[in-house]
Amino acid sequence: MKKDDQLRASAEIGRRAEAEIGRTGLKVNRLGLGGAPLAGLYQGVTDEQAGRVVNTYLGHGLGFFDTAPLYGSGVSETRLGAVLSERVRNATARDGRAANVRDAFVLATKVGRLLVPDPARDQDVWSDDLPPVGTVFDYSYDGTLRSLEESLVRLGLDRVDMLHIHDPDNHYDEAMEGSYRALVRMRDEGVIRAVGVGMNQAKMLARFAREGDFDCFLCAGRYTLVDHAALKRLLPLCEERRISLIIGGPYNSGILAQGAVAGARFDYRKAPPGIVEKVRRVEAVCGRHGTPLKAAALQFPLAHPAVAAVIPGARSPEEVDENVQMFEVEIPAGFWSELREEGLIPDAAPTPA
């Protein structure tokens, strides 16, 4: 058998494809919806527009959502919850079967930041029309319980399915002593079904994998078509310990959606020249094989057996439709082979069948 054949995975890809989270029995769509753009990441989004995004995604028969208190200082949770809670309420009013509607979607949010009034807050990457609310780090046991309570109020729901400890880059010990203990207790009591960590780095996630009992990790931007930082250590650990990896930021903040154009973002800032050149080379291979860059970006991470889902965001119904379309594009095996031959993806990285 050729080396390329050995490295080519048989991961199921398509809008109906699902994957189990760890050993929890909880199944998610392999194409999720990231909630940051719903709150005005980089540019403003109205309540009505956000609602149409969520309803369009649901209209494709999909239902795996990721959000966080940080995203727009609660605005993402509020806008996502407005649609989901209305569906549950309508089902209850119609025939009393709210549980069936609630069980039709999987919802993840995060702990580790509490919201506080802050009229002078720095909007950073968020649109300037958001409310004057800021965030403070709090990985304490009680703070974690409070965070979930406040998220449920914003969401208008009585439960979420998975909770991630959010960005504990400089708070490892506090996160393990506080948030982790709280989440494990909630999982043991059936309040949530999956315990995770969400970060923009792979190194500390590997430490969490070694030292804790986690079901899943959300790793944003570190296992994509052009960034393979998670491949060497984190992914093997996740596979060994059956921790499901959810890939956030599969477009690396935009450059894998826009291509190597002026002003393209990578990792929340202007893309550095080396990344721009790498994407330009990937685009050349895409052109030779008739493969959309977005399709390759969405499908590449899913070939690794540790990866359960990718969760691109969207700020318009058209972007949702395009993500679904790109997710289902058939990509020729020769495309992946040429990427490997050109040194654009590592020899150890599996590729879709």
Compact overview of the structure:
The chain is built from 13 helices and 16 strands.
Structure, explained:
It is a single chain. This protein is of the alpha/beta class. Helix content is 40%, strand content 17%. It has helices at 3-7, 47-59, 75-95, 98-102, 141-155, 172-188, 203-211, 234-241, 255-258, 273-289, 293-299, 317-327, 333-341; strands at residues 8-9, 18-20, 27-29, 33-34, 64-66, 106-111, 113-117, 133-137, 162-166, 194-199, 216-220, 244-248, 265-266, 269-270, 307-311, 351-352. The chain has an 8-stranded parallel β-sheet. The protein has a two-stranded parallel ribbon with strand order 1-16. A two-stranded antiparallel ribbon has the order 2-3. α2 (47-59) links the parallel β4 (33-34) and β5 (64-66). α2 packs across α3 (75-95), α2 (47-59) runs parallel beside α12 (317-327) and α10 runs antiparallel to α13.
List keywords for this structure.
alpha/beta; globular; disordered N terminus
DSSP summary: helix tally: 13
Largest sheet: 8 strands, parallel
Strand content: 15-25%
Write down the overall mean pLDDT.
94
Distance between the termini: 14 Å
Quickly give the structural class.
Answer: alpha/beta
Strand order of the largest sheet: 4-5-6-9-10-11-12-15
How is this fold's topology laid out?
Blueprint lengths: L2 H5 E2 L8 E3 L6 E3 L3 E2 L12 H13 L4 E3 L8 H21 L2 H5 L3 E6 L1 E5 L15 E5 L3 H15 L6 E5 L5 H17 L5 E6 L3 H9 L4 E5 L13 H8 L2 E5 L6 H4 L6 E2 L2 E2 L2 H17 L3 H7 L7 E5 L5 H11 L5 H9 L9 E2 L1
